[in-house]
# Entry
Amino acid sequence: MPAAGLVNILRRMRDTGEGPARGPLAPASGGEITQEPLIPKDAFESTEAEGTLGAEEELWLADPETAKLAGGAQSILDAESDNEFSGELIDCEIEANTAAHKSPAAVVGDLRTRRKVLLGHAERLGRMLGTSGTHPLGDWREQRIIEKPHYQRLKGKLGWLIRRNNTFSVHVHYAVRGREKAVYLFDRLREYVPHLLALSVNSPFWQGENTDMHSARILVFSRSIHRAGLPEPLGRWENYAKYIDFARRSGAIHSLSEVWWDVRPHPGLGTMEVRAFDAQTDVRRTEALVTLTAALCDALSAEFDSGDLRPIRPSREIEENKWSAQRYGLHGTFSDHETHEARPTLAFIEELLDYLAGASGRDLSAIAALAEEPTESERQLEVFRETGSLAEVARDISRRTGELTAN
# Structure
């Protein structure tokens, strides 16, 4: 068929409403196709208090007898406020959302309160509640994607890839004022994704197998789904705006939430969102990671304000360190971006903490302690060595989720 004939057919389908749905396109008066922008006009310009913090924590539900993932999130959502809990892809997963706070302790106080609410619902439903980067033996083929248009749309688009994404994370928000500052924080934070991941690894098992990774979550999610993982640097706000416009107009995305980078701007909230962490079973570790995020963003914000801008590292170099964090946790090596020499990961963590101690007024003692104790992934592996049972690993995660929330 000549190209002109195909164009005429497509125009007739558009004008009469025949054919596939228009997706994000909407007809304006006169029959012209227009789109509402995804980025608010005042993005990063109306932030009230820079450095305000918030967090989102993803948790799982499981059957006490089998320790396998089991549904119940929709029942919880029907009983609770949309402001505090939300559905997250599958019916065995529930997300707790905090309010905005000035301190990491207040953020995690919110998370503790929400965990207690969820523990009550889990008991009502006859479920175990737990949180870790992956569930040790949950089978993605047995899970039901919730009846939420956003996730049903992703199911249609991504199919097998999205259905197998049974992963759990904790996301930390830091409020930023100024678009160019937001871009600078975005570009600089990328360099520290490996550090953040190494401290938070909590997913050595996937589908009942030992993956030989300390973070199988990264393998399953950010290395298999496009628009996930480590992003390229942006350089300027216009580059971000142009990319979002491209992705929206092409129909690739319907909302900003379909960009799943390890670090991403959140124009609607005026925050930088750090998404590199595996979910932490011990809520005290979560508080340390929120503090680390806040201190790091404080330091990068001060860099921008002073004009002492640092180099922006290429993704290909950062990826090498991220791989080491994924594979070995705190016990691998990172490559120095200046000398290109490999040194122990813990040495880089210590250097980062030394830098933050001079650049941020926050108490970093809890973060330093994280580097001196086993990670959550090591805890899972130890329980498996002792019991030989992944069901017991899952039960240990659930027990600790409850006990450490109460303490």
In short: Confidence is low (pLDDT under 50) at residues 1-33. DSSP finds 15 helices and 15 strands in the chain.
